[in-house]
Amino acid sequence: MNVHEYQGKALLARYGVRVPRGEVATTPEKAGEIARDLGTAVCVVKAQIHAGGRGAGAVVDTSAQAAEVFHANLEREGLPKHQKKGGVRVVKSPADAVEAARSILGKLLVTRQTGASGREVRRVLVEEGCDIGRELYLSVLLDRSCGRVAMMASPAGGMDIEKVAAQTPEKIFRETVDPVLGLQSFQARRLAFGLGVREQKINEWVEFFEAIYTAYVDLDCSLLEINPLVETKDGSLLALDAKVSFDDNALYRHSDVRELRDEHEEDPKERQAAKFDLSYIALDGNIGCMVNGAGLAMATMDIIHYHGGAPANFCDVGGGATTQKVAEAFKIILSDASVKAVFVNIFGGIMQCDVLAQGVVEASKQVGVKVPLVIRLEGTNVEEGRRIIAASGLNIITAADMADGARKAVRAAAGAVA
Amino acid sequence: MSILLSSKSRVVTQGLGSTGKFHLKGCRDYGTQMVAAVRPGKGGTSWEGVPIFDTVSEAVKQQGVDVSVIYVPPPGAADAILEAADAGVALIVCITEGIPAADMVKVQRYLEGKTCRLIGPNCPGIITPGQAKVGIMPGYIHKPGRIGVISKSGTLTYECVHQLTALGVGQSTCIGIGGDPIIGSGFIDLLRLFNEDPDTDGVFMLGEIGGAAEIDAAAWIKANMKKPVAAFIAGKTAPAGKRMGHAGAIISGGKGTAAEKIAALEAAGLKVAPSPADIGSTLVAAMKA
Known about the structure:
The complex is a heterodimer.
Chain A: H1 5-14, E1 22-25, H2 28-38, E2 43-47, E3 58-60, H3 63-74, E4 88-91, H4 94-104, E5 108-110, E6 119-120, E7 124-128, E8 132-143, E9 148-154, H5 161-167, E10 173-177, H6 185-195, H7 202-218, E11 221-232, E12 237-239, E13 243-246, H8 255-258, H9 268-275, E14 279-282, E15 287-291, H10 294-306, E16 311-316, H11 323-334, E17 341-348, H12 353-367, E18 373-379, H13 382-391, E19 396-398, H14 402-413
Parallel strand pairs in A: 15-16, 15-17, 17-18, 18-19
Antiparallel strand pairs in A: 1-7, 2-4, 2-7, 3-5, 5-6, 8-9, 8-11, 9-10, 11-12, 11-13, 14-16
Chain B: E1 10-14, H1 18-30, E2 33-38, E3 46-47, E4 50-53, H2 56-63, E5 67-70, H3 74-86, E6 91-94, H4 101-111, E7 117-119, E8 125-128, E9 132-135, E10 144-151, H5 155-166, E11 171-176, H6 187-196, E12 202-208, H7 213-224, E13 229-234, H8 248-251, H9 258-267, E14 271-272, H10 279-288
Parallel strand pairs in B: 1-2, 1-5, 2-4, 5-6, 6-7, 10-11, 10-12, 12-13, 13-14
Antiparallel strand pairs in B: 3-4, 8-9, 8-11
């Protein structure tokens, strides 16, 4: 689960991480009030959406414009720096803050990460400006190669860190943390010296890194990224941005974090799927897919492409699905207008084929399937599953195996009689 | 005797909810010695003739258990793994999906230096066809034989085994290692066992996008493996960035795409199935080569 920058910063501040003073606004007038209350010569108005590259993105009015800008510039790079259309604006008066907020709120912000559709901006964060000395990079994440949490820092802040890692790996410093001990002072010092700390500030930097690590562990984060981390002109550290993602598997023990979920930032179908403990992925093709298991989902996608088709979506019903869950999955898949055929590819382990079959039959009767339906079943209770399908009287195309099913689904989606 | 699991293995089930009960029966029907279950507070009772204990150590003492299979729900699953490890169970198979990563970081740390082996979590389990199965896979699709299977996936493993069996190719042992970021045994640990197993002639490896485990395995195979290995990597056509975390891709040095993994495996001399429908035939071709 992701949260907005302003929410992430508020969480970090709880752990003693220094962030710029500021508040969130949903109207231009409120943005002006916040700027006036901050009372600084310079303020920054920042669009709040769950995607990076906001400064280099573009604010537009319509989705047609969003697509145009995205394909013209953003797909590869950001907008040229001099353009004043981005999602982050520097303003010099409360009146300018009102204007900046007015030109951002309710509009679409399209960035390298939003895709061609962009995202509607519903909030702006108004913050005090700061005296930037240097821009650095800091993140905490899980290093899956050793099964431990790692902290990474780089003096190349404000840049695409993947490029830094590829081109100048010597500019990335990394400490792996023993979970029994937590981040040790010597490790934090090593990072600070790597970044070129001023000697008299070393303790402050160590405390900053320790606070970030504590927040990561305490909140069950999956990624905590401060980019840029700013060294102010007086040598102190300030989290100018904050990207905080949480481990979905651990949300059950963080009710305060769960409350920060912004449903507007999620695909409505994914949200609907999550309610029933299903996982849904939207894609660009025209074959709706119901599968069980992530590996089989990917393999199903591969084999559909292999036979010249493309999946419109995936709904993974996982293990132990009930009839109702399967029926919901089916409805979600069919609610996508681009679906021209449905391919059900199930290999039952925990999932029992008769339960799956029952769910598909019930859902088909409820929603009335108007597209061809191809089903391939194998595994636990498969005979009973096949019997239920055959006895349902529904017009279902059965497939002998995965390749047969993929071929039939591709043909059916193309409008041919399978 | 194949690897890890045989008809002599004595298994305790941790987590006796509806899923645990369903699969305890399934494993017993397959012929596995399901000799104990653990359900705190129910010690001294039994279910379907299987004695229930309060703790794993009690089950080990009374029933000589050497394998544990865990179905405990996510909030208690890491604790269940630690309890089994503490009780000295040699092989721990964790089926549970959805364990918080932070819990697994601690489990991993606790297991360092211990002799017990963890398989999973978030995996289908292990089967030595014709002898025993521990986990949730449908037993009937398997056939005793001499090919080892190692897989990150659950259902895709069944697909693979089904194809092998349909071609008359039996399996020595099939292991689902799980698809979580932190797992117990990985590809290399198990390839090493298959390499030394006199009852295994070749191995099929099922990988997927994300992480670098398949690339590391490719290097290990090239340097050490005495037997043919064939592979399939799922997710060749997955849209970039949809699953992989931004910063996660850096720490593995930008590794993780299917194309990169397939190239590494082919460079190590493996045959890689072009489509998931060709898994069985690719293995057969690798064994003939």
